Amino acid sequence: MSRVGQKERVTQTRLRKFFVEQLDYDYLGDWEYREGNRNIETGLLTDWLAKRGVAEALIKRTLRKLDVAAALGEGKKALRCE
């Protein structure tokens, strides 16, 4: 691993520890080599939104917008509300 890669890994570890210990996030493990690994975990996001009472139609629309944004690499531009 390069020095840059080593520094990145140290930073990721530090941030993960902060999110878990300070913000009470659940750590789901290292999914780097997991089959079907994606930037947007639609199953987890759908379940989370549904538990909070978000309508199914809105969840589907949101997932479509996120997929478009991820595919185009446009980030915030693609996520603007219409």
UniProtKB/TrEMBL annotation:
Name one molecular function that GO assigns to this entry.
type I site-specific deoxyribonuclease activity
Write down the top EC class of this protein.
hydrolase
Q: What is this protein called?
A: Type I restriction-modification system
Q: Tell me which UniProt keywords the record has, alphabetically.
A: Hydrolase
Q: What is its EC number?
A: 3.1.21.3
